[in-house]
Design brief:
Elements lengths: L15 H16 L1 H22 L10 H10 L5 H14 L10 H23 L21 H30 L3 H15 L6 H14 L3 E2 L17 E9 L2 E9 L2 E6 L12 H8 L9
Parallel strand pairs: 1-2
Antiparallel strand pairs: 2-3, 3-4
Length: 294
């Protein structure tokens, strides 16, 4: 896409390396989705490292993105919404470093997620006075003819900007060092309020739930492990099968231990009022029609 219309242009003032990396992720989306996913993962790492640097935190023994995110969350520097975005970008970008199975759909979802992460970061750490992260809306990149020469030029620019970043880091850290304790509390308040502006899509919510289920031992993959693609319960496996037919509708996840249905999960966007889905949950809770396809 034309960099003049990039979703990440707002980052050029204050963090040009991040802006250019985002523009590259957009350009790679259609020609090389795997490379696009890798670039978004790099962006997540850049943001986490900058927060770490700005907060003046000590180096940790295991300097991995996972450990950085865990420490930032444990110290209440990043709120839950931001923590989940970090992990979504980290997990979807990780396989791209080792395989060639990234899809355009994956790339598009993660581009939107990393945009929200960057917008939050920009308001919380770069410009909390005039920038409103809530006004940043993702636009799907347009597909353009391959521009290998332009991409190579941008890759070289990222390398050059990484050196310029050192100067910008020093200036910002000097400013943060002068903060009073009251100033720090105000900045933290800004960060938490900005996180509440993040508008989650149902797809992003499902990706987060996929990971949460994976973390506790369930096979879960919203895109591929679904009823319509032939996924069925199997002896000796714990499966969270997506879009399972139930009472004439489809529940987001049906949880099976072996061939036994043990629970149902319904995914809703963050901010959805529980009261608005009580009837639906009650229907699924009664398990009417959910056993017909076992």
């Amino acid at each position: 896409m034309n960099t003049d219309t990039s979703n990440f242009n707002f980052l050029e003032v204050g963090f040009p390396e991040l802006a250019t990396t985002g523009q590259l992720a957009e350009k790679y989306l259609y020609s090389d989705p795997n490379a696009s996913l890798f670039k978004t993962r790099v962006m997540g790492e850049l943001v986490a490292k900058q927060i770490w640097y700005f907060e003046g935190l000590d180096q940790i023994e295991s300097d991995t993105q996972l450990d950085r995110i865990k420490h930032l969350y444990a110290k209440s520097i990043i709120p839950t919404e931001v923590n989940d975005l970090f992990h979504l970008v980290r997990k979807k970008g990780n396989p791209s470093a080792h395989s060639t199975h990234g899809t355009i759909e994956d790339g598009q979802i993660v581009l939107e997620s990393v945009l929200k992460l960057c917008a939050w970061f920009y308001e919380a750490y770069i410009d909390c006075t005039t920038f409103d992260s809530g006004t940043v809306v993702f636009a799907v990149p347009t597909q353009e003819p391959d521009t290998a020469a332009h991409i190579a030029e941008m890759e070289a620019l990222v390398e050059a900007l990484s050196k310029e970043k050192t100067r910008l880091q020093t200036e910002l850290q000097e400013a943060l060092a002068k903060e009073s304790e009251e100033d720090k509390k105000v900045r933290l308040d800004v960060a938490y309020k900005a996180a509440k502006k993040i508008k989650w899509t149902e797809e992003e919510t499902r990706r987060v739930i996929d990971q949460q289920l994976n973390d506790v031992g369930w096979e879960a993959d919203t895109l591929n492990l679904r009823f319509s693609k032939g996924a069925r319960p199997e002896k000796g496996k714990k499966k969270a099968i997506a879009e399972w037919p139930c009472s004439g509708k489809y529940v987001d996840y049906a949880l099976f231990v072996g061939e036994d249905l043990v629970g149902l999960v319904e995914a809703k966007k963050r901010g959805t009022a529980i009261s608005s889905v009580v009837g639906e949950a009650k229907m699924y809770g009664e398990l009417r029609g959910c056993f017909d396809f076992i």
